[in-house]
Amino acid sequence: MSQVLVASNRGPVSFSLSENGSLTMRRGGGGLVSGLAGVTGALRDPGPPRFAERPGAASRPPGGAHAAGPSPETSVPPEVLWVCAALGEADRAAARQAPDGRLDRAGHDTGGAAVRMLDIPAATFHRAYNAVANSTLWFVHHLLYDTPRSPHFDGRARRDWQSYEAYNAAFADALARDAAPGAKAAIQDYHLSLTPRMLRDRRPDLRIAHFSHTPWAPPEYYGLLPDDIGERILHGVLGADHAGFLTDRWAEAFLDCCARFLPGARVDRTARTVALAGHVTRIGVHGLGVDAWALRRRAAEQDVAERARALREQVGDRQLIVRVDRTELSKNIVRGLAAYRELLANHPEWRGRVVHLAFAYPSRYDLPEYREYTAAVQRTAKQIADEFGTPTWDPLVLQVNDDYPRSLAAYRLADVLLVNPIRDGMNLVAKEGPVLAERGCVLVLSREAGAAAELSDDALMVNPYDVSQTSEALHRALLMPRAQRAERCARLAAAATALPPQRWFADQLSALD
């Protein structure tokens, strides 16, 4: 394996402009980046993990005993090149200043990988990222549309789609130019659904993998897309030699869509292959877990300890229900808060004896649906505080500022962890919490989270739309004896750490051999 190329919308670093006009670099945000950054570093140096950051993604950093770096027989680690997009004006300035967009050649610490940042025109990027990737594909795969009103595919939507094609072509061009003969390319997520086919057309000698970090919509919902766009996306993914998904459920949905919408495709469900136009794509399932070593190391640092002390002083000896999420529509925060309110209304014995700490970090605030959803979260939280709060007890603490150490501190102190998405590719919060819980926590988990496939035996499972059922699950969780709680939590932690990020990535690369 002489060269590995990674392609994703976000890269391992991002930039901001200082007051004096100079560029300041910081590590890129997002769970996918957290995982890939450590993995790419480990391919070059299979030592301790390099990164551990951000809620919902702390475990996506690398490492541990299952690290999938070069084997002892491998004398030369592969060259790793990461291709990403400039996300804002500061990123674009950094890309323009770097030789041919290569940040590593401009002296930036890019975490062990060579990084090419693409300076895609701002208008093209905005339409591809916001109008198509986040407002269309994300909504389709997470079943988020209010179908009497949306989607609405008109002439403007077609222009947005052209930008999405141009954005994917920019990645395919960069990968084709940089790839050595026979290199492996790992293309990540729904932003780059067209890139595998475009890259194969440019470089048929490459071995190409695509991985979907989101769910995949069932045919009945996928069919909301215009027929030609839906086909183009399927054709795009099938340009890969290997298409990976987080769970069997999402892989089967993809196969169902290929069978329904691609008349010329031969779908073999037993072998999990799709043959189309003389090319065969293997479909794989690669669950993503937590790197316990990296996560616990980060949680043991001083800033986390300080926040844990502050939280304990704030909560006292009350039980603590924790959730850690972005204010993403699919995370179902409003119903989770409604379930907590119903708990306090129906079980007044918990008043004054429990606190709900809800992390709801802003997400995609440039989209109106997300601004309104964030406002709804804040309104619901205020209603709970007004209805039940007393001079000596705050029933709910809503944290809207991105404070990763405080999230880790909350995991450590949690008695109950609430993870109730209406649909989620995996949801690593469900795996991170049990790994860090110091006294053992009860996991209340939505059956629609990808993590449910691995954790359902020891979690309290709920229908995410059933507020009353979720409320009663919280009640059961708070009543669970400590010994039983600790035993279940230990089994959850073991399941959560079975497939750490390096193993997950190495399995995708191995599938190309």
UniProtKB/TrEMBL annotation:
It comes from the Bacteria. Pfam families: Glyco_transf_20 (PF00982). SUPFAM superfamilies: UDP-Glycosyltransferase/glycogen phosphorylase. Residues 37-75 are annotated as: Disordered. InterPro entries: Glyco_trans_20. Residues 54-73 have a biased composition (Low complexity). Coiled coil: none annotated. Belongs to the glycosyltransferase 20 family. This is Trehalose-6-phosphate synthase. It comes from Actinomadura graeca.
